[in-house]
Structure formats: C-alpha cells, structure tokens
Amino acid sequence: MTTVVTGTAGRGAHPLRAEWVRGFAPWAGAAVLVILGTALGGKADRWQGDWAETAGQLHSAMLITLPLAVAAGCWQGGRERRRGTAELWAAAVRPPLARLLAAALPTALWVAAGYLAAAVSALLATWPYAQGDRPHLVLLPGDTAAMAAAALAGHVAGRVVATRLAAPLLAVGGYVGLGLVTAGRSAAGHALSPAAAVPHGTLPVWWQPAAMAAWTGGAAVAAALAYAARRRVTALLPLAAALAAGALLAQTGDGLWRTDPLTRRQVCDTSTAPAVCVNARYAGMLPQVTDALSGITGKLEGVRNLPARWADHEGAVRAGEVPLPGITPVGWAAVRGRLTDPEQFAWEAVAALEGVDCPEAAPTPGELVTGDAVEHYLAPSPVQQAFDADDARGGAARRADLRARRAARARLAGMDEEQRRRWLSAYFAARAACDARAVPAL
C-alpha cells in the first residue's frame, strides 16, 4: 500500500537554505561582529557615553570591516573552484547571474548584519552613560550598504581570480588602499572613502548616505552584472549610477559635512559667579561640573571684575567668557559621563580665569609668584606638592623661588575675607586689562 505524506512535514528544505544558515555566510557575519566588537571594546573609554563619538568610531572602523567583507566575499566566490565543481555548476539549468546571486547574497547580507549588530550593541552600550545629544544614525544605512557591496564585489573577484591567495591579498590591499585615501589630504578622496573620519562637531548632509550607498552599491552591482548577466550591457545602468554618485561626492568634498547645531549651544548654571556653562551635547554633566568648580566659586563670592562665565561652545570665546576645561575628547577628562579628575579640572578652570590673552612680554618672576598664589588658594594643582618637593631638593635658585612662592601663598591665605576680596578684585581687574603694573603685590 502506498502512503501519501501531506503538509509541510513531507517537504524538503529549500536548496538555498543551507547557504543562509549553515554555510560560510553566517560565520563571515559572526567574524565581522566579533572583530568589530573587539576593536570597539578595546577603546570603549573613548566613545562610550558620547553619541557623536560612538557614531564616529563605528564609521572609522569601516577601515577594518570593509577589507574583511571583501575577503569574505572573495573566499566564497572561489568556493566552487576549490571544490572542483565549477564545470558542474556551469552546466546547470539555472542562469549564471542567478547562480552568482544565490552564492553571493548570503555572505553580503550576513556581513552587513554583523556590522549592524555591532553598531546596535555600541549604541546600547553608550545609552546608559549619555549626558545629552541624541543617537547619530545618519551614517549607518550607507555604511551597512557599503559592507554588503564590498562582499558582493569580493565575490566577483573570487570568481575571476584563480588563486587561494586572492582573499587575503584583497584584504591587505583594501586596508592599505583605504588607509592611504583616508589619511591623504585630498578632499575628493575623503568624500569617496567609506571609511573617512567624521570631522569633529559635524553631521553629514542629508543625502550623503544615499550617495555613498549608490557609489559603493552601484559599482558592486555593475561588476556582478558585467561578469554574469546574459546581457552585459545592463551593467551600464548601475555603473552610471555609481559614477554619478561618485562625481557628486567628489565635487562636494568637504561640503558633505555641516556643523552640528548642538555644538553651538550651551546650558548654564547662573547661580555662581562666574557662571558655569557646558556644551548642550553634555548637558547632563552640568551638575557635576558645577560641583567640581564649587570650591572656586565659593572662594570668589563677592569678588568683582571676574569673567561672566566659563563657556563651552564651538567657535571663538566671546567677550566676558573664558573657556571651560575640555570635556572632550572623551576618554581623558571624562569617561562614561563622569569627570575623571575633578581636582585637575578645577585647577585648569582657574588657569583659564588667569589665562587672558595679552600681547605682552613674558610675565616677570613677581607675576609668576602672584599667579601661583592665586591658583594655590582657589584650586591647587594635584601635582603641586610633588613639584614643590622637587624644587626643595634642587639648587639654591629653585629653593629661593620655592620660599617666595610659599610666602606669597601664606600672605594671601592669611588675609581676612574682606581684604582678600578687595585684593582679588584688583588682581582680576589688572589681568582683564592686561596691565602688569596694576597687578597688586603680595
């Protein structure tokens, strides 16, 4: 008796299913995920908590992931030749282009998915520590498309080049070539490179990701059609799209990037004098920055002739402002949304108060002693004791200079509150006027 099996249980798996779930392609995607994740994790202090820096690191990592995608596609493209089944597949009923796409698309999409998974992981790692701004996602579609295009182009190269060394050679050549273009000074080269660094404080114009996807994807599709299509003339259409997008990118050059409006804004705490302002990209750090400077502002209460604020915005410092010590680049003064050394940050803020740009000769020894006393009173340097100890072990001149500095510090600290306020008011007035003769003595 014959048994008839009905339903899905009797159906065989689709012949292409193995390419997608058990072949080389998933391993290629996993390799991209692991390598990119490792590269980003090794320097997480430099981007975690900063949306702009996270996006910039992901984009710059294309210098590594693009050659990897090309090599993965190339290795997959040479599979049939390595197995000795190229002639058998050539005799198959399926058209050459369909056979190429059936083998190439899984790798292309898996490496793109690996890159996208690493990008999502990095964004999730930044989210708990972000202190302002918003996720920068504009470059992500173009970068993901470039990964898929690189794998497709590499697959075609693997079909054409009959050597097992093609994949590693393409990886090395791609890395070196991208590195040279990215490190070069040509604005057109930077615009055409999918791995060029994002200029600090900028965003891409809205059409840049689409143009980059057309530039990289059009070139890869044109290569595939030129190799496998029955009518190779069809390759001209994606080639024309790639050349048009490339020409647009190259001609625009540095114009592909515009200043992020948020970098020009700041949020301020005006309850102190001077007021404390931080860039709007790090608005959440204002309370801890204000707290780090509270020792200074408390001692300056009632003092006149101070700058209006510590400012943190793109562009030149305006009248009445002094620059806030740099929170960026992330990984130095701030890591994961926290100041790494509040005492050093406070000392740098005092140095900014005194650092008026005066077109004068070098300060006299007396001015240096006075400035040291002010710094020591408001926010001494964390390494000042080490410097003093080193001077104490030095020659006679260094020991005499140390005695003069310590005496000036003691005189300023020994003044009563009102006398010290008057003295500091006169000191900051002289500094603001760039009048060294008006600096009061100690």
SSE inventory with pairings:
Layout: H1 17-21, H2 24-41, H3 51-60, H4 62-77, H5 79-83, H6 86-90, H7 96-126, H8 139-160, H9 166-183, H10 187-192, E1 202-204, H11 208-228, H12 236-252, E2 257-259, E3 266-269, E4 275-279, H13 286-292, H14 294-299, E5 309-311, E6 321-323, E7 334-335, E8 338-339, H15 342-354, H16 365-378, H17 384-392, H18 396-414, H19 417-433
Parallel strand pairs: 4-5, 5-6
Antiparallel strand pairs: 1-2, 3-4, 7-8
Helix pairs in contact: 2-4, 2-7, 3-7, 4-7, 4-8, 4-9, 7-8, 7-11, 8-11, 11-12, 16-18
Brief characterization of the structure:
This protein is mostly helical. The protein is built from 19 helices and eight strands.
**Kindly state the mean pLDDT as a whole number?**
89
Number of strands: 8
Shape: elongated
Number of helices: 19
Tell me the Rg in angstroms. Answer: 31 Å
Output the structural class: mainly alpha
Unreliable stretches (pLDDT < 50, length at least 5) are 1-12
As a percent range, the share of strand residues is 5-15%
CA distance, first residue to last residue: 114 Å
SSE string: HHHHHHHHHHEHHEEEHHEEEEHHHHH
Into which percent range does the helicity of residues fall? 55-70%
Q: Strands of the largest sheet, in order across it?
A: 3-4-5-6
Largest pleated sheet: 4 strands, mixed
